[in-house]
Amino acid sequence: MENACKHLKTRGIKPSYQRIKIFEYLLRNRNHPTVDMIYRKLVPRIPTLSKTTVYNTLNLFIEKEIASIIIIEENETRYDADTSVHGHFKCRKCTKVYDLDIDLSKIDIPMLAEHSVTEHHFYFKGICKNCR
Amino acid sequence: MENACKHLKTRGIKPSYQRIKIFEYLLRNRNHPTVDMIYRKLVPRIPTLSKTTVYNTLNLFIEKEIASIIIIEENETRYDADTSVHGHFKCRKCTKVYDLDIDLSKIDIPMLAEHSVTEHHFYFKGICKNCR
DNA sequence: TCCATTTTTGTAATCATTACAAAGTATGGT
DNA sequence: ACCATACTTTGTAATGATTACAAAAATGGA
Fold first, then answer.
1. According to the model, what pLDDT value does residue B1 have?
2. Residue A127: its chain B contacts at CB < 8 A?
3. Mean pLDDT of A55-69
4. A12 in contact with B at a CB cutoff of 8 Å?
């Protein structure tokens, strides 16, 4: 994935080994991982990896807007390489998080119009089609 | 507010002094308080109040569905006595959280239809009308 | 009043995240 | 190639929110 490296550069992020690996993980695993999931998956290949580095790197990605934060449960911060406007559905039973396409033109919230909105978050919970 | 007491009873919650006070706080202050805000406001009037009690009580309210959780920032859990479907807008500048009326019939998210949804969460960030 | 149950309380434990400083790595000029 | 400087990574310790737990207090019948 030379891809990841270039993507980092274009956003003004120096493509260090750790940053590339973490970003590649986000690109490949579209399962909205937590810091811990990323750390545990990468540390066998990068034995010196520190959890602090994962935190630092993700915070950098958020700041440079190449990743976004997903909060569905308290105390469970997840990350997503998809920074476009979209939503999430979490199944209470299997705990899987589904992505939802969101067409903003089909979302009518009059009271929003008076403010200047920079972030849109939509998430839902329930039982997914497979668990019903 | 005899109101609060009755409301608790109808949901099968024994109306202890602390529970009534905490619920009244939620009813009066529609500003989406954190546990700490509730605790600090009530402890002068209830000197023996423990933060653990506030946590326990709010968790009970959530379980019995007379209050709901609002998560807009990581590490900042807020509570709301309004359990109806509605949204929130948080201003980055003044940090105020506005309520948004949401008309679900005007929200079209096709991919949601295949699941069975029990919770709807909508939140937005940006700069509010007063701060622009 | 006495007993059983529930509620409250304080302390300690847990867990995710951040602060911080030391060690390591890259970079650019000479 | 060498050095000075800046940036990145790392480990440990600190922080802060939340929960676990057990003792104390309050409640509500019989």
1. 57
2. 115-116, 118
3. 97
4. no
Tell me what pLDDT residue A3 has. Answer: 84
The pLDDT tens digits of the residues spanning A80-113 come to 999 999 999 999 999 899 999 999 999 999 999 9
- Find the Å distance, CA of residue B70 to C1' of nucleotide D3: 55
Q: Give the gap in angstroms from C-alpha A63 to the nearest C-alpha of chain B.
A: 15
What is the overall mean pLDDT for chain B? 95
Strand D: which of residues 44-73 in chain A lie with Cβ below 7 A? Answer: 46, 48-53, 56-57
Name all domains of chain B by residue range, CATH numbers in brackets: 2-80 (1.10.10.10), 86-126 (3.30.1490)
Contact flag, residue A75 CB and nucleic strand C, below 7 A: yes
Whether residue A121 contacts residue B124, with contact meaning beta carbons closer than 8 Å, is answered with yes
Q: State the CB neighbour count (10 A cutoff) for residue A92.
A: 13
Q: What is the DSSP string of chain A?
A: -HHHHHHHHHTT----HHHHHHHHHHHH--S--BHHHHHHHHTTTSTT--HHHHHHHHHHHHHTTSSEEEEEETTEEEEES--SSEEEEEETTT--EEEEE--GGGB--GGGTTSEEEEEEEEEEEE-TTT-
pLDDT digits (tens, 9 = 90+) for A7-38: 999 999 999 999 999 999 999 999 899 999 99
Instruction: Kindly determine whether residue A100 and residue B112, on different chains, have CB atoms separated by under 8 Å.
Output: yes
Query: Residue A14 CA to D1 C1' — how many Å?
Result: 25
